[in-house]
Write a structure and sequence with these properties.
By secondary structure, the protein is of the alpha+beta class. Among the domains are: about 60 residues, no CATH class; about 90 residues, no CATH class. About 15% of the residues lie in helices and about 25% in strands. It is built from five helices and eleven strands. A five-stranded antiparallel sheet has the order 10-9-8-7-11. Strands 1-2-3-4 form a four-stranded antiparallel sheet. Helix 1 packs across helix 3. The longest helix is centred in the middle third of the chain and has 11 residues. The radius of gyration is 24 Å and the shape is elongated. This is SWIM-type domain-containing protein. GO terms for molecular function: zinc ion binding. Keywords: Metal-binding, Zinc, Zinc-finger.
Length: about 250
């Protein structure tokens, strides 16, 4: 997490904060020719707009790019109907993760504070790819060192997600070292039982709630979808025998 530096008190009236101007940059252009090369070697600053379009500032002017409509306000696109260097540059920066896609917005990971991108209208705490967990992932509990399979993200923070005893997850002593603002995941301990067998036995296991950073990734997509749904008690016509268990 970054902090602003403290400044001395002043009797002068504070000025409105100015939006930071993104500096023009270039990208490696070796091996490219034509517009593809100019899209990389020409200095440009790309800034996302709230409507999913992008402002591209260049030494020759400022243009608006719409990647979904494949248009740019520059003459090369507007008059010649070409895939201009500005449109190409925006697509490169999206692919490289330098800017969000048209349907995304920039956000901050609740665990590490790193920049990440999420669907534009998604609410609630956010995680980057390094700290997120998908249903079916095999993870390890930092406290017990045991293996678990992730069932789902609850969509709640640790200080707002409650166990069946109506106690916030963040209040348990075993979660004292993890952020109360972190997203909560539901998972089941799998011990040494293979997930491709004994599905009925696994289905009886209790479900536990964990702050995101308490779970350490081991293997992505470990559990097959059918097994995962069985663990969650959500097979069509199936009756759940799992219960929400408390922590600690």
């Amino acid at each position: 997490m970054t902090h602003t530096r403290n400044t001395p008190a002043s009797n002068t009236k504070s000025r409105p904060r100015r939006r930071a101007v993104r500096q023009k940059t270039t990208l490696p252009a070796s091996g490219f020719v034509g517009r593809a090369r100019r899209a990389r070697e020409n200095p440009m600053a790309v800034r996302p707009l709230r409507d999913g379009r992008y402002v591209v500032e260049t030494d020759g002017g400022t243009y608006v790019v719409d990647t979904e409509a494949d248009t740019c306000t520059c003459p090369d696109s507007a008059i010649r109907d070409a895939e201009c260097k500005h449109l190409r540059r925006v697509r490169i920066e999206i692919a490289d993760g330098l800017i969000p896609a048209p349907d995304e917005r920039a956000s901050v990971c609740a665990v590490c504070g790193g920049r990440t991108y999420v669907p534009r209208f998604e609410s609630g705490p956010v995680l980057c790819d390094r700290h997120d967990h998908a249903p079916g992932d095999l993870v390890r509990d930092r406290e017990t060192k045991s293996l678990l399979v992730v069932l789902r993200a609850t969509g709640d923070r640790a200080d707002r997600s409650r166990t069946e005893s109506d106690r916030p997850v963040a209040e348990y002593e075993t979660n004292a070292d993890y952020g109360s603002h972190e997203p909560v995941f539901e998972a089941v301990y799998v011990d040494s039982v293979p997930l491709v067998e004994d599905v009925a036995e696994l289905r009886a296991k209790k479900r536990y709630l964990f702050p995101a950073s308490r779970l350490v990734p081991v293997e992505s997509g470990f559990a097959r979808e059918q097994v995962r749904r069985t663990l969650a008690g959500s097979l069509p016509g199936g009756e759940s025998r799992t219960t929400q268990a408390t922590l600690g």
